[in-house]
Design goal:
Layout (H helix, E strand, L loop, with lengths): L2 E8 L1 H8 L12 E3 L4 E3 L2 H12 L12 E9 H7 L7 E4 L2 H4 L25 H22 L2 H10 L5 E9 H11 L5 H11 L4 H4 L4
């Protein structure tokens, strides 16, 4: 399970203007802000230069590092473990597992379980195991809230499955998204396919990120 919400793309105008700084070619810029649609329109001249710089490699496409994307991502810990590969140029504020794990009762919806086996007629299946773990987590949570004994808190932290969903507010650049898109679009995890679909639908993603 993964959710990408409250997406905001910023700084197109400054990035496109800065793209022309090395050649002092601002007079050739044909991009503008469209007040009717409240969006930035990249003109054919600027788009042609942008594509040329992108094809020339990361040293030449520095303007992509100045196009920023902010998004709230809710995903399981096993997905975040892979996302954390992309540390350079990204920032994330996460809901704290360490400090707030005991703040609310655990429920099945707190975990990614959409792919778990639960209908094969076995006497004990994956979803059953998760439900037992949730019951045990809630027992330790209640004990910790009543006593504040750290051993109960540690039991929650160490027992917590990697399917536990965490929300983070993430800031990336279009340069980050190029690396993510090409590294993960054929990944085994369905969550990465959903993330790549989200990337494809960002403004000018097909021209600036996906290489079309």
């Amino acid at each position: 399970m993964i959710k990408l919400e409250r997406t905001e793309v910023m700084n197109f105008e400054n990035a496109i203007r800065g793209m022309r700084n090395p050649l002092n070619s601002w007079d050739k810029s044909d991009s503008r802000y469209d007040w009717n649609t409240c969006s930035y329109h990249i003109g054919p001249n600027d788009l042609a230069l942008a594509r040329k710089l992108i094809k020339a490699g990361s040293d030449h496409r520095k303007f992509l590092r100045q196009i920023f994307v902010s998004v709230d991502i809710t995903a399981p810990l096993y997905w975040w473990k892979e996302f954390d590969t992309y540390k350079v140029g990204t920032t994330a504020n996460s809901c704290s597992t360490m400090h707030k794990i005991h703040a609310k009762e655990f429920s099945l919806d707190d975990f990614s379980h959409d792919k778990m086996i639960s209908n094969m007629g076995e006497t004990f299946e994956a979803l059953d195991a998760l439900c037992l773990i949730i019951d045990l987590l809630n027992q330790y949570r209640n004990s910790y809230n009543e006593t504040k004994e750290k051993r109960y808190w540690y039991s929650m932290i160490q027992l917590l499955p990697s399917s536990y969903n965490q929300m983070r507010t993430v800031t990336l650049t279009y340069e980050n998204l190029i690396n993510i898109y090409y590294a993960r679009k054929h990944h085994k995890l369905d969550e990465w396919h959903i993330a790549c679909d989200w990337i494809e639908n960002l403004p000018y993603a097909k021209e600036l990120i996906c290489g079309e």
